[in-house]
Amino acid sequence: MLNEEQLSGLKRHLEGEKERLQKKLSDNHHYGMEEGMNNAIGELSGYDNHPADIGTELFERGKDLALNEDDEEQLEEVEMALLRMEAHHYGSCVVCGKEIPYERLEAVPETSYCIDHQRDKDISNRRPAEEKVLERPFARTFHDQQDDPGFDGEDAWQAVERYGTSNPPDYFRDGEDYNELTEDHEERIGFVEEVEKLAVAGVDGRPIEGVSMNDDATDQGKEEWEQNNQ
């Protein structure tokens, strides 16, 4: 629980930060966002220009837009923190309701999240809005954490990953063999016990396709049989 001295100090800091941000945005005219891009670069129209002709100006405009958005979001967070102080709700996480440690408030006075829920908020900001419903590709069908033994999204990904991806895994992982560079390569696929990975063979010793629980074992067994019976 924050005491009066701590609360007063945090309030002064927030009021000072609010004044600083307001002055900053006012002095630089919201990073030039108050003026249209064509007027800012002295062009009558942007339609007759190839994007490459104004590439530098476009980059600077995008940078200013991002900086302006960042300052406006920070100003909004500061103002919301001051409102929570007036309503006597300051210092509690808006998600779980737990008290936020003073050390965290001292470092980030405008925060309304505890450290755990702040991580969730930051991660969600980096993902497309539609994933609030859809979740990430494949991930929405990953059922490993639910103890589901059925064929799920992870199994589907592993089935196609071994044929290669647009991002070669050897750039990111260590391994002595390409078969060791895929996700969960040590996982048993198609069998549970070690004996089940052996290929099923006919009376002549040739592995039979479509019978073994492990296609890789069947293929390897066929190669060995053909080499030994040439």
Explain the layout of strands and helices.
Elements: H1 4-27, H2 37-41, H3 55-86, H4 102-107, H5 115-125, H6 131-134, H7 153-161, H8 215-228
Q: What keywords describe this structure?
A:
DnaK_N, YteA, 46% helix, mainly alpha, metal-binding, Znf_DskA_TraR, single chain, Four Helix Bundle (Hemerythrin (Met), subunit A)
Question: Could you explain how this protein is built, in words?
Answer:
There is one protein chain. With 230 residues, the protein is mostly helical. Among the domains are: 4-42 and 56-126, Up-down Bundle (Four Helix Bundle (Hemerythrin (Met), subunit A)); 197-230, no CATH class. It has helices at 4-27, 37-41, 55-86, 102-107, 115-125, 131-134, 153-161, 215-228. It is flat and about 85 Å long. It starts with a helix and ends with a helix. Residues 210-214 have low confidence and may be disordered.
